[in-house]
Here is the input.
Amino acid sequence: MANMSDGDYDFHRSSGCDEFLVQYHAISNKLKKRFLRKPNVSEACDQFGILATQCEQKELWQYAGLCWLAAARCQGTLGNATAEASLLARAGRQFLTAEKKNCVIGCPSPGQENIQAAVSCFGHSLARTQNQPESSVGAAGLALELANALGSSPAGSQQLRRALSIHTTPESLGMLASSYVKQGDYVMALNVLTELVELVEANVGTGNTPTGNNCDILHRCEVSRVLLLLILQPTPQRLAPGLAQVLEKYAWIEESNNVLGWERTKCCSSSP
Here is the structure.
């Protein structure tokens, strides 16, 4: 990155919002068009990066996010979509960190400005990444990263759905099902677990026995689906054939246990 010129404000010798704004505006002014003189966008991008790093070192996360966002815009102007997407994601992470730190000290932003800024940055980064060839995995990873940060909330579930629409994996489906369970939306959780079972069974192949990780996933899904069905208690008419088979399996086990228990009781009562 380019070094700051002597005329630039030295952020290391100052602190606080006022000093940051002085230097931020000084760099921004270099991007203004002047008569017969093109702005040096590349130099401004480097200087925004330097200022962002200084903000990170001072744990001024929101200001760092603003600087990385400004640097991303410079890369967009230069037509470098890859660098722009990377810097947008980096800006989003700083805004998420700012919100996390604010929550730790008990002062979350009332309007969730940092969360909104992070979602916007990740959204634009996703748009740039999806436009690049063979980038579906990277784009899905960005959506998953944001979903993890947003937690078990409708906004987090939306990002998980977005990740799944780009690149479906058993891990992302499992995360979405867990998110719905924590939100109390058991119907959606059950539907997603059914999607997960169908995906794993399709990967295993018809007639093949699942092994290893696939076997573990199917076992966990079966247990979770049984518990959700016990909570929901759907009528037989509203039960899908696959779910009916799962319930029948465990209902048969329960009936067998009841019969065995009754026979033991009978034997004990008839003993001398």
Remarks:
- The two ends are 93 Å apart (CA to CA).
- Residues 241-270 form the longest helix (30 residues).
- The chain has eleven helices and no strands.
